[in-house]
Every structure is written in structure tokens, then in C-alpha cells.
Write a structure and sequence with these properties.
About 45% of the residues lie in helices and about 20% in strands. It folds into three domains: about 110 residues, Alpha-Beta Plaits, CATH 3.30.70; about 100 residues, Chitinase A, domain 3; about 140 residues, Trigger factor, domain 2, CATH 1.10.3120. With about 425 residues, the protein is an alpha+beta fold. The strands form three sheets. Strands 6, 7, 8, 9 and 10 form a five-stranded antiparallel sheet that branches. α1 crosses α2 and α9 packs across α10. β1 and β2 form a beta hairpin. Involved in protein export. Acts as a chaperone by maintaining the newly synthesized protein in an open conformation. Functions as a peptidyl-prolyl cis-trans isomerase.
């Protein structure tokens, strides 16, 4: 017997009773099964008296019988009421009201009902950018700056120069820890030194010295210096100016063009840039689409699923730190930190699952193949990368999940108020001033 009570929007409670006679019958059957093989000193296997088997294994058999009976009764009720259980039910015994039954309460959460909403009133902006010579030139400029070298300069220190200095810092006339260095090199404007220190060095010529006061920021990482005013003596020993490489055969070779063909280098840079622009546009549209889905489907999510997702995110963060060479044994990474992110991911998972099923947005084999070939295109041997994906089901599943996301994005874009919006290269690539 059982009855169901709705505790909250997603929480359910089912009260159950199991006849003791059924329990006793199951216990006896289990003990008889054990008696066929159980071993005890002085008896051959299978010849131990039933009374002794019951005395030794009775509590275990009874616990198993009760567990099986409760699981069976709960399963029947869940199926009869067509409930989708999220997480694991909590089973609690009730105070006995008679001698012929055992009574229990099962408390659990169910999945929310997701009804796909009309998204036609939702707005989605799709960035538009065509990669041309200007974008290639900007990218080559970035690549050149990454390969900057420094050569001796004959002028006073300017912004962007690399300088080598000796300096000594004193607070109230006394040298402080970390305030002294010899042959210390840094780039003006590189952010390695505090801005006030860099400003003090600007305009100096090699061999010149300077004494100046400087106040550390109130939030400076060294607590004994935070907010304190100190005095520095600095001597300029060398000054070097930046030199960018020319866009020539040697530069092309540094970018992997074996024969140094500059035109081929530009073509490859453009092709890679087009892939990156496409990826970033897709990422921005996808982010907006996911927000649209959450806005259009205000559902409550089971706490059990959020806890599971939070735990998984914490584990992923731990693995990521370890992959970067960090030791996480004593690093507290708590699942609670990821609660908000977990709620969002669970909501999107439930909404997208219903959307994929209702709108038949499942990944097709040719779509999976296409996305894997797109991944592989930027590698030296694309066929090797394709084979790597197809060699393990787990890798294929990851590609399939991405295809499904793309299908969902395409469906929302096709059904919402989608407008194309021209965007700048810097805005899209995150280089805006």
C-alpha cells in the first residue's frame, strides 16, 4: 500500500507499507539459498543446520529482504504514477502503527515539466564581420609584436623601451624587504612595475640616477608596504628600444611556412582568422541563444541535479588545476562555489533535451563528421585528428553534443527575431581599447 503527497513543486513524498508476512517469507527464502553454500567450522558446505544459518545470517537476510521490498513497492508506485525521479529517494522508517506491516516514507524530487515556449518575440543579434586585408594586417601586427626583440638605443627612456636599472628603496631612511635589486630589467608600459615607478624612469639617459618618492596602492599585495610612502634611488644602466621583425621570408618561417613564401603565409593567416572569426561569432550567438532559452522557460530545477552538477564542476576545476601542474591535495575546491553555474547548466540541459526531442534536433552522422573535419582543418595532418576522434566513443560523443548545441542554436535563430549586426574586428576579438 502507498499514498503520495506533494511537498513542493518538485518534491514528492510517498508513504508505503510492506506486509511483514511477505518480509518473513523472503527472509526464509534467502536463508535457504544461503544454506546451500554457506561454510562453518565442523560442517561440510551445504550441510550447516538451518537454525545455525538463521542465527548467523538472519539479520543480514532480513535487512536485504526489507530493502528489496521497499525498492519494489516504491518502483511500482513510481511507474504507476509515471514519475521521473531526479536523484536518489531518501527512505525513512515510520513509527509502527500495527504488528502486521512495516511502514516507510520515501522523499524524492521529480523532473520539472518543460513545455517548449514560443521564442518568436525574443531578439537575437548575430555579429557580422568579413575578414579582409585590414584584419590580416592587424593580425600580422600582433604576431610581429609577439616576436619583438630589443636593440641598444641612443635616446632617453621612452614608453615601450626595455631598461636595466639598479634600485634601492627606503622607508623612513631604512631599506625594506624586496626594495632592492641590481641589473633589474623591465619594459616601460609592460605592467611589471608600478606605474609611478615607470614614470620616474622615463626621460633618463644611461648612467643617470634619480631619487623619488612613491606611494604604494592601498591594496598592494605586500601588506607591510600597502598605502605606505617610500623613497627610491634608481640608476639607469641600459636602455633598449623595441624592434619588430620585417614581414619577410624569415618571419614567414617562424609562422610555419617552410619555404618562407610570404603570400602563402598571408593566405594561411587569413584562413585561420576566418575560422577564429566564425568561432567567435558562433560563441556570441550561442551565448545569447542560451539566455533566450532560460528567459523563455522559467523552470524550477531539482536540488539533487544541481548538487550533482556542482560536484562535477568542482571535480573538473580540480583536474584543470592539476593539468596546469598545480597540487590540489590541500586546495579546498568546494562544490558550493559552482552553485549558480550548476543551476544554469541543469536548466539548459533540461530545456535543450526537451527541445531536441520535440523538434527532432538530434545530431546526424554527416553533421558530426563535418564538425570533426572543421576541428581538424587547422592541424598539420587533419586525417590523423579525424581518426583520433573516431577511435573512441567518448570523443565522438563530445562532437555529437556540440552538433546538438549547434542545431538548437540554429532552431532558435530561425524562430526568434534575429538581426545581423556589423561588428568591428577589435570588438569581436576582444582587442578594443
Amino acid at each position: 500500500m502507498s499514498n503520495q503527497v506533494t511537498v513542493s513543486a518538485l518534491e514528492r513524498r510517498i508513504d508505503m507499507s510492506v506486509p511483514l508476512a511477505d518480509i518473513d517469507k523472503d527472509v526464509e527464502a534467502r536463508l535457504k539459498q544461503m544454506a546451500r553454500t554457506v561454510k562453518m567450522p565442523g560442517f561440510r558446505p551445504g550441510k550447516v543446520p538451518f537454525r545455525m544459518v538463521a542465527q548467523s545470517y538472519g539479520p543480514q537476510a532480513r535487512s536485504e529482504a526489507i530493502g528489496a521490498a521497499v525498492e519494489k513497492t516504491l518502483g511500482e508506485q513510481i511507474r504507476a504514477q509515471n514519475l521521473r525521479v531526479a536523484g536518489y529517494p531518501s527512505i525513512e522508517p515510520k513509527e509502527p502503527t500495527g504488528t502486521d506491516v512495516l511502514e516507510f516514507t520515501a522523499v524524492f524530487e521529480v523532473y520539472p515539466e518543460v513545455v517548449i515556449s514560443d521564442v518568436s518575440a525574443q531578439e537575437v543579434e548575430r555579429p557580422q564581420l568579413e575578414v579582409g586585408e585590414a584584419e590580416v594586417a592587424k593580425t600580422l601586427d600582433v604576431l610581429r609584436k609577439q616576436r619583438t626583440t630589443f636593440v641598444p638605443a641612443e635616446h632617453a627612456v621612452q614608453d615601450g623601451d626595455r631598461v636595466t636599472v639598479d634600485f634601492t628603496g627606503r622607508k623612513d631612511g631604512v631599506e625594506f624587504d624586496g626594495g632592492k635589486a641590481t641589473d633589474f630589467a623591465f619594459v616601460i608600459g609592460g605592467g611589471q612595475m608600478l606605474k609611478d615607478f615607470e614614470t620616474a624612469v622615463l626621460g633618463l639617459n644611461v648612467g643617470e640616477s634619480k631619487t623619488f618618492d612613491m606611494t604604494f596602492p592601498a591594496d598592494y599585495h605586500a601588506g607591510h608596504l600597502a598605502g605606505q610612502t617610500v623613497q627610491f634611488d634608481v640608476v639607469l644602466k641600459t636602455v633598449e628600444e623595441p624592434k619588430l621583425p620585417e614581414i619577410d621570408a624569415e618571419f614567414a618561417k617562424t609562422l610555419g611556412i617552410a619555404d618562407g613564401d610570404v603570400e602563402k603565409m598571408r593566405e594561411e593567416v587569413k584562413a585561420n582568422l576566418e575560422r577564429e572569426v566564425k568561432r567567435r561569432i558562433q560563441a556570441k550567438v550561442k551565448e545569447r541563444v542560451m539566455n533566450v532559452l532560460i528567459e523563455a522557460h522559467p523552470i524550477e530545477v531539482p536540488k539533487a541535479l544541481v548538487e550533482q552538477e556542482s560536484q562535477q564542476l568542482a571535480e573538473n576545476a580540480k583536474k584543470d588545476f592539476e593539468a596546469r601542474g598545480m597540487k590540489t591535495k590541500d586546495m579546498p575546491i568546494e562544490a558550493a562555489w559552482f552553485g549558480e553555474q550548476a543551476v544554469r547548466r541543469v536548466k539548459l540541459g533540461l530545456i535543450m533535451s526537451e527541445l531536441v526531442k520535440g523538434k527532432e534536433l538530434h545530431a546526424k552522422p554527416e553533421q558530426i563528421r563535418a564538425i570533426i573535419e572543421d576541428f581538424a582543418a587547422s592541424y598539420e595532418d587533419p586525417s590523423e585528428v579525424v581518426s583520433w576522434y573516431y577511435s573512441q566513443p567518448q570523443r565522438l560523443a563530445q562532437a555529437e553534443a556540440l552538433v546538438i548545441e549547434d542545431n538548437v542554436v540554429e532552431w532558435v535563430v530561425g524562430n526568434a527575431k534575429t538581426t545581423d549586426k556589423p561588428t568591428s574586428f577589435d570588438d569581436l576579438m576582444g582587442n578594443a581599447a
